[in-house]
Design brief:
With 247 residues, the chain is of the alpha+beta class. The protein is built from nine helices and eight strands. It is rod-shaped and about 195 Å long.
């Protein structure tokens, strides 16, 4: 080989070992380049193969999408309503500015509003006492309703003996002068408190004057309540009044 610095026509001899090493290095570089190119080609081929498979799958899926299209159109079409919820309604700086203006403008009318709210609260406080009597009223009437004395007064029990202090009737002077005599039978009711009520003439003595004297005698008479099993009950009793000239 001609030398770079030597005279023309002069050949420099290198050792055979160095030539072999250089040649082997060149071959190794070429082999590395070839492998790199092969790998690059294989890597490029792989993405080309994958999209083809994806396209084939997309072609097969449309029929299933068409079948399920009506079902998906109902649900997901309404679900986007979530988007307006996130359309920044919360970070509103404007409403915060409004109260500032209201504070300056409504500083004077505020006391008037408080004055109006106070009567409303008083009006609201008034109804609770109205509800309280309503609850207490239904509790009391049922106690008075089951009371049976009024029914027993209408149907008193007739008795043959009763503890009473009957006043002696006055003999009318007109009846005495005319010699009127007889026995008047008076029927009356004694209530649970011992009061004489509903006195009436059951049998006349034959003289209206004597009958009136018999009924008048009961006005000043008194009786003790009639007890049955320790409980006072209304009763009826018949009291005879005899008028005779000998008396």
């Amino acid at each position: 080989m001609p030398g770079g610095n030597g005279a023309p026509g002069v050949w420099i001899k290198y050792p055979a070992n160095e030539v072999v090493v250089v040649f082997a290095a060149v071959l190794a570089l070429h082999a590395a380049l070839a492998l790199w190119l092969m790998r690059a080609q294989t890597v490029r081929v792989v993405p080309l193969a994958t999209p083809r498979t994806i396209v084939a799958r997309l072609l097969t899926t449309p029929p299933s999408i068409v079948a399920t299209a009506p079902q998906r159109a109902i649900v997901p079409a309404r679900t986007p309503a979530i988007a307006p919820a996130h359309s920044q309604p919360q970070p509103r700086p404007q409403p915060r500015q409004l109260p500032k203006a209201n504070r300056n403008n409504t500083a004077l009318p505020q006391p008037a509003q408080h004055i109006e709210t106070t009567p409303q609260r008083e009006a609201n406080v008034a109804p609770p006492p109205s509800t309280a009597p309503t609850t207490s009223q239904p509790a009391t009437p049922p106690i008075a309703q089951p009371a049976s004395p009024p029914q027993e007064i209408r149907t008193p029990k007739p008795v043959s003996h009763i503890d009473c202090s009957i006043t002696q009737p006055d003999y009318p002077e007109a009846a005495r002068r005319r010699g009127e005599t007889g026995t008047a039978l008076v029927r009356f009711v004694v209530d649970t408190e011992g009061h004489i009520q509903h006195a009436q003439l059951k049998r006349s003595s034959g003289s209206p004057r004597l009958d009136e004297a018999a009924l008048g005698a009961l006005q000043g008479s008194t009786c003790h309540p009639y007890l049955e099993a320790g409980v006072p009950i209304p009763v009826t009793f018949e009291q005879p009044f005899t008028f005779g000239l000998e008396n």
